[in-house]
Design brief:
- It holds the Pfam family F-box.
- InterPro entries: F-box-assoc_dom_typ1 (IPR006527), F-box-assoc_interact_dom (IPR017451), F-box-like_dom_sf (IPR036047), F-box_dom (IPR001810), Gal_Oxase/kelch_b-propeller (IPR011043), SCF_F-box_component (IPR050796).
- This is F-box domain-containing protein.
- It comes from Brassica campestris (Field mustard).
- The chain is mainly beta and 363 residues long.
- The chain folds into 2 domains: 47 residues, no CATH class; 299 residues, 6 Propeller (Neuraminidase), CATH 2.120.10.
- Helices cover 11% and strands 40% of the residues.
- The protein has 6 helices and 25 strands.
- Strands 8, 9, 10, 11 and 12 form a 5-stranded antiparallel β-sheet that branches. Strands 3-2-1-25 form a 4-stranded antiparallel β-sheet, with no helix packed on it.
- The longest helix is centred in the first third of the chain and has 11 residues.
């Protein structure tokens, strides 16, 4: 017989088990022993945990008349968490791989990047450009993006929009400010984006980070606007011909990520079509799924896809969060707001992954 004091499982097996726990459970188990207490700060375990976590998608949204956020998980259901550790009233502007970029509501120009799972946060320094340059039309950036590659250290925050010099009318140029967490500095570049259309509330929310670039869907459905963060260059990415040519006239289109690939979801009255860009450089799109909407026909006009994986799609309506399981082809209501409220659920909904990505690598 073996020594009863020998561990039941090898250390690597234990790490694989712990890496599949929710972050809250992982931190609760820190008190078990010294080795487990050090895991959330161990570089190998952080990499392992994040590599597994990014394969799953959840949905986060503000809870009406509450300081809490809901987190909807396809397996674990609905949970609540708070951003009260920021000690400020904020709204989420962008989400990427476990980090949130939040803007202060009472103090314009103050931004935070936080990991709500670990409650770690970082206040972004103010850019020196802001006192002399005003974003148009309301003084705030039209686009806010957050880029975080879990295989690398650090993150970038992007704020972009048409701008005007103080006391002057807008000059038609597109200013972009990029914050690099490793240097703790902002950099600026200005571009002339000819024929650049507008952005809807959903296209502002659904910024997608893939292939080292941030992507936004233009409201005219003519193309996807991409920012190459390595070279500080804007690029226009083509949509599927069926969409850009108007062949799907009357349909609604939304930009999402699908397991590390750029994706668009096309909604008609009775069908939801999921497109995936299989070759980014050649801009080759293909349809990976067509889903009947007949069983939720009454909800279709007010439904918005928020995030997805190869297994499921999360969608939000005015009051509800639904999940569609692609294998079983079943719909399920995951959350419903009770009573009256002002803003619809989809207005504040973002894709979210629960990771232990640090915010303060360079500090």
């Amino acid at each position: 017989m073996g020594n009863p004091k020998d561990p039941l499982f090898p250390d690597e097996v234990i790490l694989q088990i712990l890496a599949r726990l929710p972050v809250k459970s992982l931190f609760r188990f820190k008190s078990v022993c010294k080795a487990w207490c050090l895991l959330p700060s161990d570089a190998y375990f952080i990499t392992l945990f994040n590599q597994l976590s990014v394969k799953e998608q959840t949905l986060v949204a503000e809870v009406p008349d509450s300081s809490s956020l809901i987190c909807v998980d396809s397996l674990r259901g609905v949970s609540e968490f708070s951003l009260e550790f920021l000690r400020d009233r904020v709204r989420i502007r962008a989400s990427c791989n476990g980090l949130l970029c939040c803007a202060s509501v009472p103090e314009k120009g103050v931004y935070y990047v936080c990991n709500p799972s670990t409650r770690e946060f970082r206040v972004l320094p103010r850019s020196r450009e802001r006192p002399v340059t005003r974003f148009y039309p309301d003084g705030e950036a039209t686009l806010v993006g957050l880029a975080c590659d879990v295989s690398k250290k650090g993150f970038c925050v992007v704020m972009a929009g048409y701008h005007r010099l103080f006391g002057h009318r807008p000059d038609g140029s597109f200013v972009c400010l990029v914050f690099d967490s490793e240097s703790n500095k902002w950099r600026k570049f200005v571009s002339a984006l000819e024929g650049c259309g507008g952005f809807t509330q959903m296209s502002k929310n659904q910024v997608v980070f893939v292939n080292g670039k941030l992507h936004w869907l233009m409201s005219g459905l003519c193309y996807v606007l991409a920012l190459d963060l390595e070279h500080d260059v804007w690029r226009k990415v083509s949509l599927p011909d069926e969409i850009s040519s108007g062949g799907g006239g009357g349909n609604r289109v939304y930009l999402l990520e699908l397991d590390g690939f750029l994706s668009v979801i096309q909604l008609s009255d009775v069908w939801m079509k999921i497109w995936k860009m299989r070759d980014y450089e050649s801009e080759v799109w293909s349809v990976v799924d067509s889903i009947s909407l007949r069983c939720i026909k009454g909800l279709v006009p007010g439904i918005f896809p928020i995030c997805q994986t190869g297994e499921y799609v999360f969608l939000a309506t005015h009051k509800q969060v639904l999940v569609y399981q692609r294998r079983s082809k079943l719909w399920k209501e995951m959350f419903c707001v009770k009573g009256s409220y002002s803003l619809p659920v989809w207005f504040s909904a973002h894709a979210f992954r629960s990771t232990i990505v640090p915010c303060n690598y360079a500090l």
